[in-house]
Amino acid sequence: MVETGAQSIEDLIPLALRDTATATFRYVRVNLIATTVDAVIEVFIRDGFKLVEDVKMLNVNAHRFMRDGDLSDVLVFPPGTVLHLHPLYVDGSVVLQDKASCMPAHVVQPQPGSEALDACAAPGNKTSHMVSLMANKGRVHAFDMDSRRMQTLVELTTKARCRIIETQCMSFLDVDPLDPKYAQVEYALLDPSCSGSGIVNRMDALVDSYASGGRPQEPQGGRLAGLAEFQMSIIMHAMRFPAVKRISYSTCSVHVEENEAVVAAVLAAQDEFGLAPAEQVIPTWKRRGVAEGGLTPEQAACVVRTLPEDGTNGFFVAGFVRQKPTDVEATRLHLQTIWAGRPAPQAASEPAQNQHQQTNQKKREFNKSADGKPAGPMKKKPKPTVDTRKQNSSLNGQRARSAVTASGPPAAGAGGTSKGKKRPKRRVTSAVTQ
Ligand SMILES: C[S@@+](CC[C@H](N)C(=O)[O-])C[C@H]1O[C@@H](n2cnc3c(N)ncnc32)[C@H](O)[C@@H]1O
Asked: Cα of 62 to ligand 1 centre, how many Å?
């Protein structure tokens, strides 16, 4: 970017392509690290824009805009509004991000001062959104396998003034959930590679989501099945972090196989997490999931779909919440023992020890391998296999029976840990602390 003299990633897009990127409304996410929604509204009004209350009044020629009715930090402009040269965008006070892509951070709801992870983070729009909601306080662990996209994440989140992101260029599936470093991680945003079939806005296709480069393609043959297995393994892996209590799972795909069916398969494969209730998942948004792929109508009402006719890209978001609280202190004590290589310290009390044993028992069950043998909860790299006790998974019988493994990329564009390929070394490409 520096070499080309571009000010932002959108500047790298040929002008001809920018003209085609006007199919949907233009959404402006206010970066709460830098400013407030009211302050941004004032600036636009000073610049000659009129604040209106009805979407029917949005008209590009009349310079109008409005607050978004579902997301408190988002403003809506008519299709075709050119904002990438606006000073608020250039200085990082606002981010140009499709509304649907702003939903996951609102579903995961990370609190200021807490710890969160972003499993497939680059180029980082949702990572910086979480940091904005966290008021730049706490820690966000951002993982991505693609070093080029990770570099973009570092640039974009630096521009957005994020100071609490620690990036690691590696497969999320190789991250050890029991590493003490992640013992406080309570929130997980999962936006893994997908078919990209929901993307209608060329600009978003180029700067925001889907896979690791290339164009969205119509899925062929088993590609969707491979993506679904990979997506499920990412969710199951995030569920192994002991303190994680809230997860958002999203795709920019319109296919049931990557959306409702993956959620149904995850619900069938474990019982630590359930679906977040509808009132916690963008409750004002009318379009919900479809009762297909194994989801009941009640479950489908808990997840969100968006379509181009809603003025956004096609997108899907689901929230998972831990059903029972984990005994984080017991887990921490246990981890301390393992990592220090010395005998277990006396637990604070007998009940805590019992609780701790129960927690491990649960984990052993959770980590059971496909043949039913315990994989061992304290393995350095626990295999993200899916417990196959509940084989009536709706993902499809074949897949549920074979259990998801994360040992190889399911299809071109999706990223597991590549067999036969050299793995990217686990490394911290940038660590920014407060
Ligand atoms: C849909 S994009 C993420 C977009 C990002 N969340 C955002 O909003 O800017 C999916 C990302 O997952 C990454 N990825 C694929 N396989 C991965 C894996 N096993 N571990 C971590 N990241 C992976 C890809 O490199 C790609 O950057």
From this structure: 38
Summarize the chain as % helix, strand, coil (round to 5). 35, 15, 50
pTM for the full predicted model = 0.76
Ligand 1 lined by 418 (C-beta under 6 Å): no
> Contacts by 211-216 with C-beta closer than 8 Å and gap 24+?
211/413, 211/414, 212/145, 212/146, 212/149, 212/413, 212/415, 213/146, 213/148, 213/149, 214/413
Helices (H), 51-100: 87-90
What separation in Å is there between the alpha carbon of 22 and the centre of ligand 1? 25
- Catalytic residue among 102, 120, 162, 252, which? 252
Cβ–Cβ contacts within 10 Å for residue 208, how many? Answer: 22
Dump pLDDT digits (tens) for 286-338.
999 999 999 999 999 999 999 999 999 999 999 999 997 666 666 656 555 65
Q: What ipTM was assigned to the predicted interfaces of this complex?
A: 0.99
Q: Is the CB of 188 under 6 A from ligand 1?
A: no
- Pocket mutation for ligand 1, best pick of 145, 190, 197, 426 (most atoms within 8 Å of C-beta): 145
Q: Which residue has the tokens 């129960």?
A: 358
Is there an atom of ligand 1 within 6 Å of 251 CB?
Answer: no
The DSSP bridge pattern shows strands 94-96 and 26-30 to be antiparallel
